[in-house]
Hints:
The protein contains 14 helices and twelve strands. By secondary structure, the chain is α/β, with parallel strands linked by helices. The protein has two domains: 6-15 and 262-383, Aspartate Aminotransferase, domain 1, CATH 3.90.1150; 18-256, Type I PLP-dependent aspartate aminotransferase-like (Major domain) (Aspartate Aminotransferase, domain 2, 3-Layer(aba) Sandwich), CATH 3.40.640.10. The strands form three sheets. Strands 2-8-7-6-5-3-4 form a seven-stranded mixed beta sheet, with helices on both faces. Strand 6, helix 8 (192-195) and strand 7 (199-203) form a beta-alpha-beta unit. Helix 4 (73-87) runs parallel beside helix 5 (103-114). The radius of gyration is 21 Å and the shape is globular.
Amino acid sequence: MLKKIIYLDHAATTYLDPKVERAMKPFGSKNFGNPSSLYSLGRQAKAALNEARTAIAQILNCQASEIIFEGSGTESVNHALIGAALANRARGNHIITGAIEHHAVLHACEFLESQGFEVTYLPVDQEGLVRLDLLKESIRPETILVSIMSANNEIGTIQPVKDISELIKSVSPSILFHTDACQAAGYLSLDVQALGVDLLSINGSKIYGPKGTGLLYVKAGTAIQPIIHGGEQENSQRAGTENVAGIIGLATALQLVQQNKSAEGRRLIKLRDKLIDGLLKIAGISLNGSKTHRLPNNVNVTVAGVSGEKLVLELDKLGICCSTGSACTSGRVDPSHVIVALGNGYEQARGSLRLTLGHLNSDKEVSYVLKVLPEVIKRLRQLV
Length: 384
């Protein structure tokens, strides 16, 4: 028997891993002290916080002091872009980012534009890959920051982060490079030394950790300003009493997904490819993103002649949870900016369907989706 719910929206959020939940539990009602307090309960919380920071630093191959705990991936991205831009304004006012970045990046850049910064939005090719030649051409003497995501949240395209970093630093070592690694954290290496990044963002809700948690890696010596004020927590970079339970959960979740990323990646690639191959056999369906440079769990297709929103709602009636566009804009009818950036029209973008796999998905579930989807599409097309 199939489970009542077939959850295929892991790019939006993930459930809390039971091991993560167990690790967090003591810090809710027992070890609840404020890490800034001097008495033993506070010192215990501080020790747990330091252990979590050290564990994450080992995964990122960095110093523990280079990690700032944040309230989400979005906050981490905002801190990286706004904090670094403001701190380095004396050196220049130009920022480069990609056209298919998450709205956390795009909206932060829009804010910076309102503050007098200039932003170049790089186009991508049909697979969603940033063109390195255009990146190089876009760099100016006043460029201070580049932000390119490690892997896209909608189409799963994996960017060549190391190559991008090498290109940027070959032009000017002083240009800061930030990458949004929220979608990549469960499947790709986060070694900041190998990647060559100055700033890197991760959140907990995409890796079977708690919502409302995130972190920002800031390379030692990088000038950055806080965007939340009020206290001296997190090396005076993020004011507010630390969410100790959430941070413990984030560290545990990151350890688990990184330990298992190779085996889980291989398993999910088989399911992903079966799903893609089956979907492409249905008339009027085309793949969005790269077939080869793609996250192991991501499937994104355009279904011609069908509204993505209606398709999601019909599949929900069958117990299948998926999305159209990104989760952060699912309440709006605007077409996906990511699909449009690939060179597709607005109608194609409105017909996009994203199915993202996770730990509990099985071959049987994929077979069920491929069995029921053709009839759902046929019925919706007849209603047009």
